Each structure stands twice: as structure tokens, then as C-alpha cells.
Amino acid sequence: MERVRAGLGRLSRSPRPNRVDPLGPVGPGLDRPRERLFRLGAARLTDQEVLALVIGTSAGGGSAMELSAKLLAECGRLERLATHPPSGLGAIKGIGPAKLASLLAAVEMGRRMAARPLRAGDSIKSPRDVYRHFYQRLRDRKQEYFMTLLLDGRHRVLRESQISQGTLTASLVHPREVFRHAIGAAAAALVLVHNHPSGNPEPSAEDLRVTRRLVEAGEVLGIRVVDHVIVAEEGFYSFQEHEKISE
Predict the structure, then answer these.
(1) 105, 31, 97, 95: which is closest to 64 by C-alpha?
(2) Are residues 85 and 34 in the same domain?
(3) 187 SS3 class
């Protein structure tokens, strides 16, 4: 009996198996992202640590820090996560459907929080208001999107409309389509908006031609084209600010 008790005592004192922390290695001198977040603040975390906290655990049971390193290697940098094809992210070992959904939702949440949308009844005070309204949606598009912001007589927002998708040409952006939406909304004025996937907001020769044609059509119909704002990664270009809306 004494020998049995001694054996049980030795078993009770045996070291417990090491547990792997899903966020990465822990130990002396090593802080997990969660502890660094609470101790230093979210702004002090690296891109890899932020991703690790969103991921939580790898679908394959590995370290979230290791998986976040793979994600950054795949995308190049954190902001490119928003434009990376979901199929490419889902192909990374450890990213299952649930983790992919969490990542895509986090990207969309960031996009919505950063946007400053105009709502019906808001007044347009400057081209920057228009830029802020469309920037998050249009800045990373791979194609050109042509939109209009429809206004009342006091330049308050009525609603927006998408006119076309694809390279901006006079054939794609016909006055009939642009002003059909404006007439239907009883708009007194409108702002033209489109994006440049290149990232450079400077207008092309075709941008100038399309704008001139639409301004002339608006004058005939009595619906004023207040501005044409080009949205891009590097900023925006306002035809009105550069005094090109009436040329």
C-alpha cells in the first residue's frame, strides 16, 4: 500500500504537458499580441499582430502569428488585404471558411468606419465632401465606375446613381443615361464622380471630353453639372476647383 501511495505521489508531481498558445509562443521576454494590445495600445501593434488577433486561431491548429505572416506574404502589405481575391486567401493552409469570413468582415468594418458618407439632405460644401463619401468604395476598384450625386436647388443630396462600369468613354457615359436618373429624382443639379484605378487622379483627355459633353447637355436640360470629382488612391481632382467645369 505504501508503494502505491508513493507512486501516486510521484504521478501527481509530474510536470503537465506544455500547452501551445494559439496566438504564438509565450515565455520570458515574449509578449502575446493580446497582452501588448492592453499594455501598449492597439496603435503600437505590428500588422502581423493585428492580423493574429483577428484570426484568433489557425484552422489547422497552428500559431495565429505564423498564419498572419503567411497572409502578409501573400498580400504584400496589410492594406492590400482589402483588394486581394478571397479565393487566394482561402487557399492558404490554416484559413478555413470561418477565418476567411472573419477577415473579410474585419476589412469591411474598417472600410465602413473610415467612410464619411453623405446622407439625403446633407449639403455639399466642397469637393472634399464628395471625395470622402466615395473614397472607401472606389479607391481600390480595378475598373472605372462612373457615378452621379444628385442634388436639389440648394445643393443638398437627394441620392446617388451608378451610371456605368468600365473604361470611361463617351459611348459608355451617354447624357441620356446620366440625366435620366437626374430627371427621375427631380434633381436641380448633380456632381459627376468616377475613379482612377491607376491611383493618379489627374484627368485624361477623354475625361475632359466626357465632362464637357455632359455640362453642355445639362445646360440644355436645365440641370447644372456642379463638379466632376475624380477619386483615386493618391487623392482627388475637382474640375470645379481647377476651373475646368465650364471650359
Answers:
(1) 95
(2) yes
(3) coil
